[in-house]
Amino acid sequence: MACAAAHMFAYNATLCACDPGYYLRANSSGGNSSCAPLLGGGGDGDGFGDWHVGSVGATRNQSFYFLTPVLSLDVVRRLTQSQAVLLWAALAALAAWFAFCAAARFVGRDPARHKKLFDSRFWISRLDCIFDNNHYAEDQQVLRKRKTELGGTFSVATLILFLGLVTVLLYQAIKRRNVEVHRVKPANAPDLLDFVNDLEFHITTVSSMSCAQAVAPSTIAMGTPGFMDFRVQPLSTLLTYSCQNTSDGPSITLKCNGCRIPPRDHYVSWQFVDLPRQPAAAVGFQFNLTAKQHGDNSDVSFVSGTISSNNFVDDKLKTFRGRDSNVLKIQLFPQIYNNHHGLKLLQPLLQDFTQGSTFSDVGSLNASLQNPSDGVINTTLYISYLSDYIVEISNESVLGPVSIIASIGGLYAFSVAIFLCLMAQCEGRIKKLRNEDTRMLKILSKQRAQRNWSKVRKFVMYTWGPSNLDPTDRSGKWPEASVMDSLHGSFHKRRKPIRRGTSSGSKPKKPADMAIEIERVGEMQQPSSSRQP
């Protein structure tokens, strides 16, 4: 019989099987099955691929974050995970400020045409709060306080750079204020009994087999074979077994809820056997081992990955089949997380993998498929409990308030020094910038005088009469001289002093004489045009 599919050969004259390192995989589009290699596990020459090891908080429950449906927190973390984002934001603000100051200076030169931009230049000079006491040294003048447009520009630029650097410093202090410290201490029996965890071991045999070919384990061995502590107990006393068919093959699950594993080695074995038209053959293993504290599903320790057939001995693709058992050695390491309220977890680690019977060429695999004694795949889960030592994990602060304050002072001095050097270079090379504060004030004084000139003219006309600047009134006629003279006299006539009686014997005047004198004074103060002839 000829097998039309690629990487396939015929055996027993009527059946087809995949080449070593390939397994029969169903097509997702509904077509015929084809032989495919193990995905994510081969080609690197070490037999291991796609390993992931995690610890506490790796799969923390995210349902409490109410912003998750609106804005994913992972996006926010990716945007703020680097200090470069904050630095680029500070540099962008600095560039925008320089662009605004340059536009105001070069476009707002003419106060009459661009009044707002010229006013912006004045307010920029008023922002000079850092370099206002600096003066050009070569003019041999006394140091005096001066506010310049260049000084205002560099003062605000200094503050922008300083705030950007302080933001980065605070971000670093918040994110990296603690260092995770691991301490190892000898384990005691009461300490180990406090580790009550929910353990789950998921081992998927990558193949075209199904759970119908699996022979479930019935016992679990504890201790070292050949020694007095070796025991064999029913599997149900410690673990629960289940099998589920997946697209990659049958997945064996072993669970232990709220168990205290004694500090001994454990062995659990299961196997897959041949069925008609379904030989027992595999190309690799996928594993996912997790440990949770009993009653707490928010924190988990896990390890997951893929074991392929091309191990570190050679790079040949192989098919697992035969009586020799494939051993997955798992170690459980006790860890106490003091930084998580004394959380106690067992960290699972896949330390070693010992491959069993394998076939790397078509001839030997064909012979094995026709041999009934090879129609089995044995798998053993070897669980080792590292109970000699316990790792304590805690956080220790590395940044104190004094160091943060000292860093802030250094950043301020750094920012001021940069723009002080730039300002000295600008004033030293461009002489026009040395007295720009005086020119700015003169222009503003001239503008202020022009705005108030009309008020001054009205005041002069009302006080001293018409002048040469405005010889006519609003009607275009000369005002009457007598009226203007009378107004001028009434405003500038001095009151005559009143003589007071002295002690030399002068008598006070009578009331009748005083009334006659008051009438005379009133007639003298009346204007000449209002008197009758």
Describe the structure in your own words:
Residues 490-499 have a biased composition (Basic residues). Residues 489-533 are annotated as: Disordered. Keywords: Membrane, Transmembrane, Transmembrane helix. The chain crosses the membrane at residues 85-107, 154-174, 404-424. With 533 residues, the protein is of the alpha+beta class. Among the domains are: 40-62 and 184-394, no CATH class; 86-175 and 403-434, no CATH class. It is 32% helix and 28% strand. The strands form five sheets. Strands 6, 8, 9, 10, 13, 17, 18, 20 and 21 form a nine-stranded mixed beta sheet that branches. The protein has a six-stranded antiparallel beta sheet with strand order 5-15-14-7-12-11, with no helix packed on it. A two-stranded antiparallel sheet has the order 1-2. Helix 2 packs across helix 3 (115-126).
